[in-house]
Amino acid sequence: MTTATAGTALAEALRERFPNAVQEADAHAAWIEPSAIADVCLFLRDDPAHDYKMLSSLTAVDYVEHFEVVYRLTSLSRNATALLKARARGRESPSLPSVSGVWRGADLQEREVWDLMGVAFEGRPNLKRILTWEGFQGHPLRRDYLEPPLPYSWPHGG
């Protein structure tokens, strides 16, 4: 059975190497300072004690006041997973450093987050739309995409 690494344990290990990189942690995840996310990911991939060679998924959540980019890491040798999160602030041009140089699998996932949420990834080549077409206006998974928002219930009692 795969073991989920506690966010608090991961944060403790990361604070030894990156004293200012961990913002907070709970039982499930560690929140990383946005400017440090690529360095932290490189360390977690290359350090034999962690060995997170696989980025299982990279996605984002729109909390209106910020976007949270979620990184699910997997260590096949240790049969373990870990969850990192980083907050991208601002509605106009939120961004984080790219991890496509750490894991090639991040390439398409970062493009998807850019296309659907509008979170840019600094330092990566080829940041262009992947699911919508070039020229598409906006980012369709943002909470503020439709102005005004669609109602949650049908107007005629449905």
Level-1 CATH class name of the domain at 3-92:
Alpha Beta
Q: What is the 3D shape?
A: globular
State which percent range the strand residues make up.
25-35%
CATH topology of the domain at 3-92: Beta Polymerase, domain 2
What's the number of extended β-strand segments? Answer: 8
Uncertain regions spanning at least 5 consecutive residues:
150-158
Q: Please write the string of helix (H) and strand (E) elements.
A: EHEEHEEEEHE
The CATH fourth-level homologous superfamily of the domain at 3-92: NADH:ubiquinone oxidoreductase Nqo5 subunit
What is the fold's blueprint, element by element?
Layout: E1 3-4, H1 7-17, E2 22-25, E3 30-32, H2 37-46, E4 54-62, E5 66-75, E6 80-89, E7 95-97, H3 106-117, E8 120-122
Parallel strand pairs: 1-6, 3-6, 7-8
Antiparallel strand pairs: 2-3, 4-5, 5-6
Features:
two-stranded parallel ribbon; alpha/beta; disordered C terminus; Beta Polymerase, domain 2; 3 helices; 158 residues; six-stranded mixed sheet; globular
Q: What would you say this structure looks like, in words?
A:
The chain has 158 residues and is an alpha/beta fold. The protein has a domain at 3-92: Beta Polymerase, domain 2, CATH 3.30.460.80. It has three helices and eight strands, in the order βαββαββββαβ. A hairpin with a 4-residue loop joins strand 2 and strand 3. Residues 150-158 have low confidence and may be disordered.
